[in-house]
């Protein structure tokens, strides 16, 4: 059986910023989940990311990636910490991050500052919804800008997280478990 191919995403090869939050304690669990920060995507998602980078560049922006491929064991750690299907996919269902087809990211302006999205990445609150009512107009514009970049590149979004994008049809793909042989090791 051929295993799906995960490609490494780097600032040098993809012209993105990378800050893998789950390799640090700057995530909602308060502890690192990955031992090493390797940003990986399945080939079709990597190709779509390249399109998103090009679109972002046309408006003077850069993409900043917080998470991409996530081993199923890391998904279990997140579920154990916050068993809320609004924000975390149950292991039985499988996360599209664990399929290599989902990416968490934001936009960065020409000065290197993240656009104000109203909440931080992985803020598991109602205000993280893409179109949450009552957010400031500039926050809505920034979220819509990110949405346009990512949809233009072929990604779709989920309602509950402004930062999460995935390839259409991701659920039909298998979960990839490279935790033993791949570069992403768990703490």
| CATH class division | Alpha Beta
Mean pLDDT: 91
Radius of gyration: 15 Å
Strand content: 5-15%
General shape: globular
> What's the total number of strands?
7
Would you kindly provide a written description of the structure presented here, covering whatever features stand out?
- Keywords: Cell wall biogenesis/degradation, Dipeptidase, Hydrolase, Metal-binding, Metalloprotease, Protease, Zinc.
- It catalyses: D-alanyl-D-alanine + H2O = 2 D-alanine.
- Pfam families: Peptidase_M15.
- This is D-alanyl-D-alanine dipeptidase.
- Its cofactor is Zn(2+).
- This protein is of the alpha+beta class and 187 residues long.
- It has a single domain (6-172), classed as Muramoyl-pentapeptide Carboxypeptidase, domain 2, CATH 3.30.1380.
- It is 25% helix and 15% strand.
- The protein is built from four helices and seven strands.
- It has helices at residues 11-14, 43-58, 72-81, 137-152, and strands at 6-9, 17-18, 39-42, 62-67, 102-108, 156-157, 164-166.
- The strands form two sheets. The chain has a five-stranded mixed sheet.
- A hairpin with a 6-residue loop joins strand 6 and strand 7 (164-166).
- Helix 2 (43-58) packs across helix 4 (137-152).
- The longest helix is centred in the first third of the chain and has 16 residues, at 43-58.
- It starts with 5 loop residues before the first strand and ends in a 21-residue tail after the last strand.
- Residues 181-187 have low confidence and may be disordered.
């Amino acid at each position: 059986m051929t295993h799906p191919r995960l490609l490494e995403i780097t600032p040098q090869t993809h012209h993105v910023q990378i800050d893998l939050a789950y390799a640090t304690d700057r995530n909602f669990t308060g502890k690192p989940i990955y031992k090493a920060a390797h940003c990986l995507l399945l080939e079709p998602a990597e190709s779509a990311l390249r399109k998103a980078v090009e679109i972002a560049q046309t408006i003077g922006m850069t993409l900043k990636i917080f998470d991409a491929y996530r081993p199923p064991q890391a998904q279990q750690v997140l579920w154990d910490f916050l068993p809320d299907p609004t924000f975390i996919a149950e292991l039985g269902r499988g996360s599209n991050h664990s399929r290599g087809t989902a990416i968490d990211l934001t936009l960065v302006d020409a000065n290197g500052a993240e656009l104000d999205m109203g909440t931080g990445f992985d803020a598991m609150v109602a205000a993280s919804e893409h179109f949450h009512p009552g957010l400031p107009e500039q926050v809505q514009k920034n979220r819509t800008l990110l949405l346009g970049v990512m949809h233009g590149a072929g990604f779709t979004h989920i309602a509950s997280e402004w930062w999460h994008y995935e390839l259409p049809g991701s659920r039909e793909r298998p979960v990839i478990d490279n935790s033993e042989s791949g570069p992403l090791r768990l703490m």
